[in-house]
Amino acid sequence: MKSFAIAVLILFSIGITTAQQKKWTLEECVTYALQNNLTIEQFELDLENAVIDKSDALGAFLPTLSSSASVSERSGLVTNPNTNIIEPGQIFSTSAGINSGMRIFDGLRNIHQLNRAKLNTLANQYRLDDLKDDIRLNVANSYLQVISNKESLKVFRAQYAVTEQDVKRTKELVESGVLPRGDLLEIEATAASQEQQIVNGENQVLLSRIALAQLLQITDYENFDVADEEFNIPPSDVLNNSAKVIFDKALTFRNDIKFSETNVELAEKDLQIAKGANYPTIDAFFNYNTFYTNQFQTIPDPVDPVNNPPLAFRADFIDQLWLNDGISYGFQMNIPVFNGWATRNNVRRSKINLERNKLQLEQDKLNLETDINQAYVDVTNFFKTYEAAQKTLDARRLAYVYAKERYDVGLMNAFDFSQAQARLDNAEAEVIRTKYDYIFRLKVLEFYFGIPIALD
Predict the structure, then answer these.
(1) Which of 115, 119, 105 shows the shortest CA–CA distance to 276?
(2) H helices of 21-100, where?
(3) Cellular location of this protein (predicted)?
(4) d(CA 145, CA 151)
(5) Within 10 A of 163 (CB to CB), how many other CB atoms are there?
(6) How far apart are CA 404 and CA 416, in angstroms?
(7) What's the pTM value of the predicted model, to 2 decimals?
(8) Strand partners of residue 93
(9) Would 282 disulfide with which of 104, 244, 345, 387, CB 3.0-4.6 Å?
(10) What is the DSSP letter of 24?
């Protein structure tokens, strides 16, 4: 039994370790961010409210229906509901009714309210989708930063491994009297510098992982990590299109532009609703009411109504409901005449809001065009920078090989050799940085062209 318990604990701990060692892909990071972002949840609630507003607008076309009932008892000087005579007594009564009404015409405001509610639902959907687009870009950028830092750290460790071999070989040459001790000190100083590079690289990886985890709203920084993968320069035809072509296409599907366009349409509906207050409103109504009372009713004596006093009687509850019921129905018109310029001022405010939203739409288009032009230039420039860094790296590698050959035969001192190695290290780090800078900016430009973010 004890062995079984130990085995269960071991399996449980292995399961925890496996879960803790999960490494996230870009797709998993994006999916998680979209499912757990608090702002997205708030925007989704706004969208639900917009759907409810749409239901309210549809309900405005339907007639209202209500019912009422009351029971009361009064003593003292009361009004007999049967005779309408004020007399001392005690009255018990109950009444019930059904009321219905319907707006026939209100300056078409109900129609404009429905159309506005539909547009508002659409606008909230565009706003939500635009936020998701921004999150995808931010997650991709942070993800690539982690990958870039990890790749740089691999280079630093590989360089340090080579330097360790140089230290070992140089130490042997110094001990045999072939090289001076100063060369060993120089190589050891280079190794110490590379160790510091590794420490800094590990810190950069940790900080970039924390930044990505915070973006995903994950608090377990220590166990969060991304998949160990290396991305090559992806092929892309997006640069076959001009920045103007990319901008024209972006205008047709970008959610931020759609959101601004819908805001203009919403402002137009608000103006129509405000103008509708200048028109009269027409309502139809129908009411049915009945009551019961414990008071006696009087009727003339059927035998001799002139000489004999009236006969008093009290009808049953059901009979009174039929005898005392009544129906009213009709139409009511309200014509606005003057309300302190409130309607006129609302129309003026709506016109101002419409112009403001039109200006915002044009500003958003200008911002989008600027962003696309900048992204287009960035892709071109960063690719050239990457190519230049790659050429520099190739040259530094040849120079390093040549320097190492000279150093091994004693034709170069340790200081010059360490300088050659440092220049190679810097060139390799620059290639990694420019490669991922180019990949991200290429993906941004493709995103503006309607190509989903994906890293192959």
Answers:
(1) 105
(2) 26-36, 38-59
(3) Cell outer membrane
(4) 10
(5) 22
(6) 10
(7) 0.80
(8) 72, 293
(9) 104
(10) B
CA distance 74 to 52: 45
Sign of CA dihedral 444, 445, 450, 452: negative
SS3 294: coil
Q: Coil, helix or strand for 43?
A: helix
Which ranges of 409-456 would DSSP assign to H, the alpha helix? Answer: 414-448
Whose CA is closest to 34, among 114, 139, 121? 139
Question: Which pairing describes strands 326-334 and 311-313: parallel, antiparallel, or unpaired?
Answer: unpaired
Nearest to 379 by CA among 231, 254, 232, 242: 242
Domains and CATH numbers, the chain: 20-62+106-279+336-448 (1.20.1600.10)
Backbone φ, ψ for residue 340 (5° rounding): 70, 35
Distance CA 254, CA 391 (A): 38
DSSP type of residue 15: H
Helices (H) then strands (E): counts for the chain: 10, 6
**Under a CB-based contact definition with an 8 Å cutoff, are residues 291 and 320 in contact?**
yes
Print pLDDT tens along the chain (456 aa): 444 444 434 444 444 444 446 889 888 999 999 999 899 999 999 999 999 999 999 998 999 999 999 998 877 777 766 666 777 777 788 999 999 999 999 989 999 999 999 999 999 999 999 999 999 999 999 999 999 899 889 888 988 888 888 888 888 878 887 778 887 888 888 889 889 989 999 999 999 999 999 999 888 888 899 988 777 888 888 889 999 999 999 999 999 999 999 999 999 999 999 999 999 999 999 999 998 887 766 666 666 666 766 655 667 788 888 888 899 999 999 999 988 899 999 999 999 999 999 999 999 999 999 999 999 999 999 999 999 999 999 999 999 999 888 887 778 887 788 888 888 888 988 999 999 999 999 989 999 999 887 765
